[in-house]
Amino acid sequence: MAIPGRRSPEAEGHRTPVVSGGRFYADAVQRAGGLPLVVPPTDDSDLVMATIERCDAMVLLGGGDVNPSRYGQAEHARLYGVDDFLDGFEITALEHAFARDIPVLAICRGHQVLNVALGGTLIQHLDNTNDHRDVMHTVRVVPGSRVASAMGTLEPDVHSFHHQAIDRIGGGLEVTATAPDGTIEAVELAGASWVVGVQWHPEDTAADDAAQQGLFDELVRRASAR
Asked: What pLDDT score does 44 carry?
């Protein structure tokens, strides 16, 4: 299970800079029976391809904002953690995942990267950010969708921590969940074996919420069936 990682100049207990992937994501994959592999960021496309060739699925992590230049805009709101190197790495990893048609679960920033990689755009700052940043809320899931099947509910309670959201949908994506205010909360890629993006953070509550863990369970099930 590929988890495209992050670079950090320091971490507790380490003398040197580190590559990290986020423990809650790895824990959820392991609970589902998968083996998480954190992939060090690189701009070597051949190396990314060779790594993805050895993996049966991918989880794209949450994190900072995508560079607006990636979706044809200039910055017009306060952005956080923009890293063009990371954008390029994750989009390249996604492209190789698409080429192999492996299952993908894209979370928060990953959900936004998925949309941008397919030609979509983002809302750079939600007017009602306080309704989406470090809060629990319900979302409405489309019946019959992959998200609904994996979670076993049409109105899950989710933990959100974001200030941006999908604006124009990328090519091939379908909206399969929304917040009460209309914010796009989940998308799925038509024609792919199993590519799902969620705007919330299922890993945060998956240890105690079977609906959230269900997304990781289905991801691993799909990977095992390949």
From this structure: 98
Pick the catalytic residue: 55, 185, 201, 218? 201
pLDDT < 50 regions, the chain? none
**Alpha-carbon distance 118 to 224, whole Å?**
26
pLDDT of residue 226: 83
pLDDT digits over 171-205, tens only?
Answer: 999 999 999 999 999 999 999 999 999 999 999 99
111 counts as catalytic: no
Say what the pLDDT of residue 10 is.
Answer: 87
Decide if 10 is catalytic. Answer: no
- pTM of the complete model: 0.97
DSSP of 170-193, one letter per residue?
PTTEEEEEE-TT--EEEEEETTSS
Two tokens at 27? Answer: 């824990």
Exactly one of 90, 108, 163, 188 is catalytic; which is it?
108
Closest C-alpha among 219, 225, 221, 171 to residue 60: 219
The catalytic position among 90, 185, 188, 203 is 203
Q: Can you list the domains of the chain with their CATH numbers?
A: 2-225 (3.40.50.880)
Provide the strand spans (E) within the chain: 2-4, 6-8, 18-20, 37-39, 58-60, 104-107, 122-123, 133-138, 140-141, 157-161, 165-166, 173-178, 184-189, 195-198
Distance CA 45, CA 52 (A): 10
Q: Is 201 a residue of the active site? A: yes
